[in-house]
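Possible regression after last week's pipeline update?

I re-ran a chain I had predicted before the update to compare outputs. Posting the input and the new output here so someone can diff against the archived version. Not blocking, just want to make sure nothing changed silently.
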Amino acid sequence: MKEEIKFLKNVAIFNSFTTGELKIIHESLKLKGIKKNEKLFNEGDEGNELFIVKTGSIISSIKTSTGAQREIANFRSGDFFGEMSIFENAARSATCFSKEDSIVYSFHKT
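New output (post-update):
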């Protein structure tokens, strides 16, 4: 668990937390393996999870007016995403899928 706490300490959203607080957060996180090109969620889905990339790469894209998907972000190890939907209690504003086999932590809104 020591390595996981060290990893979380370097995630921007958690960098001001104490080791004790990070241990509590770690207990609430679930580790998920995501295969290349697998979707985590679609634009318009309910937003009830925050994700942190442990390894790999996650792409965020939006649908353009022509119906094509446009990449808007590439999340790598230590990056987090999905928090806006939780904080604003809003639908997902983008689609996210893995660019390569990846491992992410998920934190589910209760």
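Follow-up from reviewer: compared with the archived run. The two ends are 24 Å apart (CA to CA). Marking as no regression found.
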